[in-house]
Amino acid sequence: MKKLLLILMIGMFLISFSSAAQTTLGTFEQGKCVRLIQLCGDCTYNNITSVVYPNSSVAVSNVEMTKDGAEFNYAFCSTNETGKYLVNGVGDLTGTDTAWAYDFQITINGKEPPSGIVIVVFSFLFLIVLGMLVGLLLYNLGHLAEKDFDVKDLIYNLSAYFILWGIYLLGKEYVGNIFMNNFLEWVIGITALTNVIFPIILFILSITIWKMLEMNP
Question: Beta-strand (E) ranges in the chain?
Fold first, then answer.
């Protein structure tokens, strides 16, 4: 009896797993076309009755899918909105109209939405690097007053800036949040002035004009 119950539980798990796998087409990149497919060996047709946007409005309705052997497909390209899309359709399985449905996800980078811990870790790293860049700006102003900005100080600033770039690329690849991407691009633009151009100017001044003034007081 115990073995029978175990077999039944495993069977139910496999059935539920197979069913779950069949109800989603996957995750795709925003703005790219998605090939909607439906397999049916003895169907003469499969039509999409509707594709529903994440906000529940209808994107397309009553469109015919192209038949290629046992596969029916349709290129859906209205994917500018991120979120979960629902696809509803009908086909003549064994000569009887049979409804089917599945969904697919659209994200900025075409990857699964990140977990909460990924967002927390990424935000923590960003705040650390942002704090470093602000601290380096104050550090640069202090060396401007002292007129002793050297190559080591320049390396500190450039290193922090490129670390920020690395975090931006990681965020774009694994987080895929529009607001976060736009904010990071804005920060990169500002720190390009404060932590790249400004330090380079200070370094040039330190090895030219300031050095000449020290040599000829």
Answer: 24-29, 34-39, 46-52, 58-64, 66-68, 71-76, 83-93, 96-107
